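QA checklist item 7 of 12: single-chain prediction sanity check.
[x] sequence parsed
[x] length recorded as 193
[x] structure emitted
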Amino acid sequence: MRTIAEPYTYAEEIKKSRFIAHAAPVETPEEAMAFLEAVRDPQATHNCWAYKIGQAYRFSDDGEPGGTAGQPILRAIEGQGLDHVMVVVTRYFGGIKLGAGGLVRAYGGVAATCLRQAPKREVRPQVPVQLSVPFEAMGGVYPVLERFAVTKEAERYTQAGLELALRLDAADLEAFRRALTDATRGKARVWVE
C-alpha cells in the first residue's frame, strides 16, 4: 500500500478563488476528522474533504453543489493509488462562479496536484503475533526475530518460558512460523491475535 509520508499543503488560485489543499496520512476515521478540525478555516467559504482508509471512505461537499467537491477529492486519492489519506481543500471565494464542471476540475485538480507533489512511502500491512517458547528453546528465537525485523511490543517470562507480543509484516507470517519451528525444533508456538 502507498500513502503520503507526511502532511503536505498546496495552494492555487483559480478564477480569483483561492484553493488550499491539505493532505495527511491517517490511520483511523477519528484521526481523519481530527485533521479536518486542525486545518479547517471557519472564515473560508468551504472546507471540502475526503478520506480513504482501506475499504472505508467518506467525503463532504461542505455546501458546494452535490458531487462537485468531496467526490472529486476522493477520486484524486484513488486515482493515485493512495490509501490511509485525508485531504481537505479549503476555498476562499473570489467573486467568480465556476459552475459545476469548474468546481469538479478545481477541487479534484488541486487535490491531485497536492497528492502528486507530496512525498510518498510504501506501507506493508502488519499483523499482531503472539509467540510462546519454553526456556530450553529460547536460544533459537532471537536470531529469527532479527532476521524478520519484527517489532517487539511486550515480553513476559512465565514459569514455562517466554511469551512475546510481536508485530510482523503480514507477507512474512508463514516464513516466520517455519523459521521458528526449525530454530526451536517445533517447541515454539506462534498464533495471530
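[x] summary fact logged: The chain has a mean pLDDT of 94.
[ ] second reviewer sign-off
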